[in-house]
Write a structure and sequence with these properties.
The protein is an alpha/beta fold. It has 10 helices and 8 strands. It is elongated.
Length: 261
C-alpha cells in the first residue's frame, strides 16, 4: 500500500520502518519539525514535510501516530486535503475510533501494543496488533497492514482497547517506574542497577508459564509484618514512596487471599 505517516516519534519511526521492510511504499512523512520529518523520511525513501496543508492526497492509507491530544486537530487539518477515498488510522491505545467521525469516510485503528523507542529496534512479528474500522474497507485495510508485519492480529473495539491500554500501563509503564525507584535506592548505597537484571529477567520469564498471581513472591504475599515495617521505615525520609510501598504490599496480600478463596 501507499502510506503517509503523520508523526515521526517513537511509534511512527518503528511502525514506519516495519511497514517499509514489509514492502509498503511510504510516500510521505509529516512532523511538526522539519528535522524530525526528514530524519525518518530519509530512512524510508519518502518526502518530508512539516506543513499539514501540504500533505499530498494520493496515499491509500494515512497513519496518524501523534500524541492523543493532537489527534482531532490533525484530523481536522487533513480532512481539508481532499483524500476522500483513503483510509485514516490512528495508533493510540485510549482514543476512541470516533475521533475521526465527521472528518473522513473510512477510518479506524491500528494499535500495536508494545513500548517503542527510536533507538531500540523491536521484532514486530510477535507484537499483538489490535484493529478496528468504521466499515469493511477500513477494517480490511487495518487488518491487512497489521498482518503484513505481525502474526498476532486481533479485532478490538474502542471500549476493549481502552481497558487493554490501562492494563498495559500497569504491566509496562508502572513496572518500569518501579525500576526507576529501585535504581534510585541502589544508587544511594553505591550499588549498580545491573545487579537487578537477572531478577527482572526471571520475573518476566515466569509469567510465560505461570499466571501472574502464581508467580508472585515476597514478604507481602504472606504479609510478613516485621519485614514490611522494617522496609517501610527505610523510606521514612520519603513519605510518598513509603505510602506507595505500604499500599502496594496491602494490595498484593489482598490479591493473594482472593486467589486462595
Amino acid at each position: 500500500m501507499q502510506i503517509t505517516l503523520i508523526g515521526a516519534g517513537n511509534m511512527a519511526t518503528n511502525l514506519g520502518k516495519a511497514l517499509w521492510r514489509a514492502g509498503h511504499d511510504i510516500k510521505e512523512v509529516y512532523s511538526r519539525t522539519m528535522a524530525s520529518a526528514e530524519a525518518l523520511a530519509c530512512k524510508l525513501g519518502a518526502r518530508a514535510t512539516n506543513d499539514l496543508a501540504s500533505v499530498e492526497s494520493g496515499a491509500d492509507v494515512y497513519i496518524l501516530a501523534v500524541k492523543d491530544s493532537a489527534l482531532e486537530g490533525v484530523a481536522g487539518a487533513l480532512a481539508r486535503s481532499g483524500a476522500d477515498g483513503a483510509v485514516f488510522l490512528h495508533t493510540a491505545g485510549s482514543v476512541q475510533m470516533s475521533v475521526f467521525e465527521g472528518y473522513f469516510k473510512n477510518y479506524g485503528v491500528l494499535y500495536p501494543m508494545q513500548t517503542f523507542s527510536k533507538e531500540k529496534e523491536v521484532e514486530f512479528s510477535e507484537i499483538p496488533f489490535f484493529v478496528e474500522g468504521n466499515n469493511g474497507q477500513a477494517l480490511h485495510t487495518s487488518r491487512t497492514l497489521a498482518e503484513s508485519i505481525s502474526k498476532r492480529v486481533y479485532d478490538c473495539s474502542s471500549e476493549q482497547r481502552r481497558h487493554l491500554h490501562l492494563a498495559a500501563v500497569f504491566a509496562c509503564n508502572f513496572v518500569n517506574h518501579c525500576y526507576v525507584l529501585s535504581a534510585r535506592l541502589l544508587e544511594k548505597q553505591g550499588i549498580p542497577f545491573d545487579v537487578m537484571l537477572p531478577l527482572i529477567d526471571e520475573t518476566a520469564r515466569k509469567v510465560h508459564t505461570l499466571s501472574p498471581i502464581e508467580a508472585q513472591t515476597g514478604p507481602a504475599v504472606r504479609y510478613d509484618e516485621n519485614i514490611i515495617q522494617m522496609q517501610a521505615d527505610l523510606l521514612s525520609d520519603q513519605p510518598a514512596l513509603r505510602e506507595l510501598y505500604l499500599k502496594m504490599s496491602e494490595n498484593i496480600h489482598a490479591a493473594t487471599l482472593n486467589a486462595q478463596r
